[in-house]
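Input record (one chain):
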Amino acid sequence: MRRYIVKRLGQALLVLWAAYTVSFLLLSALPGDAVNNRIQNPEAQISPEQAQVLIAYYGLDRPLWEQYGTALTAGLRGDLGYSLTDGRAVTELALNVVAPGPNCAVSFVRYSEFTPATYTTHAIKWRGRNDGNV
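The corresponding structure, as predicted from the sequence alone:
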């Protein structure tokens, strides 16, 4: 059982790594990027000095392999960077989306109503099979 779990975890990690790598390469192959789009937006009013700081922070002045390694290790540490839209940490934004809210409560109520009925139905079927009364 332990070997099976370790194997499945290894496969899951391999899939996550492959998905991240393919996504990184595809996004890198696209023309332009979010940082340069933000810098070139006249409404953003970003000075050339601020533009250089953004480019250096996001590592766009470094080779692609270095950008990949930096982004991968930062992601493993849980550092997903900062939003270009409002400057907040992406981790914080993601946690706000996942945090329990009204939709979660409604789903929980629906699930808690459905689950006892399902278990009761399966228990009755199982009991009937054991009694020989299928």
